[in-house]
Amino acid sequence: MPDGRTPIAAGTTETRPTALLATAAGHSYNTPLMANLDYRTAGESHGQALIAFIEGMPAGVPLDLDAANAEMTRRQGGYGRGGRQKIEKDTINVLSGVRRGKTIGSPIAIQIANKDWRIDEAPEVHRPRPGHADLAGSLKWLTGDCRETLERASARETAARVAAGALAKSVLTPFGIRCIGFVTAIGPVKAEVPARLSPDELVAARDANDVYTPDPAAVEPMIAAIRKAKEDKDTVGGIVEVRVFGCPPGLGSCVRYQDKLDGRLMQAVGSIQAFKGVEIGLGFGTARLPGSLVHDEIEFDPALRNTPCLGFKRRSNNAGGLEGGMTDGETVVVRAAMKPIATLLRGMDSVNLQTLKPERSDYERSDVCAVPAASVVAENVVAFEIARAFLEKFGGDSFTEVKAAYDFYLRTARSLAESRAKQA
Ligand code: EPS
After folding, report:
1. Per DSSP, what are the bridge partners of residue 241?
2. Is the CB of 364 under 6 A from ligand 1?
């Protein structure tokens, strides 16, 4: 068009700047022309430091470092942690990509120092712990010293993942998107967490105790379950849940399997150390019920037009906010199971890799239960995936463009439904 703007859809006067469409090059506007939001981590449990390298952040995002460091502290806490957390004080050191508190579009490198840095002196481990990466890694990398594997397999790496996710939240916060993780079970003790709790209610209830559960009645029994595991020289696992409030519809895609946001969330959460199961919404529960009791019936409520659901209200949220691999405007709900930690004070039957004789597994200083900490990890890895999907849909070089694309999308989505309603 002569004015450099392109009509979006017949029946609407909305336009979108052509710069965001890249039509001349034959791309849809969300084809990755440059780095998508992504991150990698490096670092060993007792190495010098943990590193996260984040690329694809637009310029001009105000980073909330205090909020991110508060997440780092929360991850270090929770009832059931071992002695290591008394040594460390995890703080994010931003090495690049930020100027005067805002991103500048270049890669963000961050470092979290390890105070307990002794990788060369740390003793060799020859009796692999069942449930840990020890044996599989020794066989993979052809070494009889499990330390070569366990240093990287250690959940210490989750400090870097939390840092990346917590910084990615800075993309979501200005749009009112909030990711909230909490504990719903420790061993056999289950919490009751009402589906319709508001974000503020959830956070206030969760932060009022050491097991990070929003159910006050479950706190003491959960603490007792952890204490009992410790007395038994054993460990205990649990279940965590993450709710994401305020997502607009259409994050993710049904087009390519790689783009489906439910699958991506499952990968991100399922890759957290010691996680063994992930479900979305009602998850495994959907298999036991007829369709009429599973699918979330749709209503239209004009009063909700300016909320993320655009007025399309559901009577339930068994889909956990995801249908066809895309957000549907409801709260995204991801739940995951963490197995008990594999390092048991009482040991377990194993084999000495040097003698091939039966022996009890090695004991390393460890946690009895890290489920509360894992709820912080899950919250932040989910935040990163949501931010990644958000920038795929609304991305641009600068945060100004992201905001424009987001506003444009919501205005257009509302006006499309309005014009159809008028025609009907
Ligand atoms: C871990 C073993 C323990 C945990 C560690 C994870 O470390 P260490 O052997 O030094 O006592 O404390 O978790 C962390 C250090 C952390 O920051 O979360 C393991 O083997 O996975």
Report:
1. 182, 335
2. yes
| pLDDT band at residue 235 using 50, 70 and 90 as cut-offs | very high
Task: Using most ligand atoms within 8 A of CB, pick from 121, 235, 367 the residue to mutate for ligand 1.
Answer: 367
Q: Whose CA is nearest to atom 9 of ligand 1?
A: 365
Asked, for residue 28, whether it belongs to a domain, the answer is no
342 lines ligand 1 (CB under 6 A): no
Ligand 1 proximity of 366 Cβ (cutoff 6 Å): yes
The residue whose C-alpha atom lies closest to atom 16 belonging to ligand 1 is 156
| Count of CB atoms situated within 10 Å of the CB of 175 | 18
- Mean pLDDT computed over every residue of the chain: 92
- Ligand 1, atom 15, residue with closest C-alpha: 156
Strand partners, 29: none
Please check whether residue 191 lies inside any domain of the structure: yes
Domain containing residue 176: CATH number: 3.60.150.10
Alpha carbon separation from 222 to 183, 201, 213, 312 (Å, rounded)? 10, 20, 9, 38
3-state secondary structure of 39: strand
The answer to whether residues 182 and 212 touch, using CB atoms and an 8 Å cutoff, is yes
Regarding the beta carbon of 162 and ligand 1, being less than 6 Å apart is answered no
Q: What percent of the chain has pLDDT over 90?
A: 86
Domains in the chain: how many in total? Answer: 1
Which residue puts its alpha carbon closest to atom 7 of ligand 1? 366
Tokens of 73: 């502290």
- Residue 1 domain-assigned (yes or no): no
Residue 8 lies in a domain: no
371-394 and 399-423 helices, crossing angle to 10°: 70
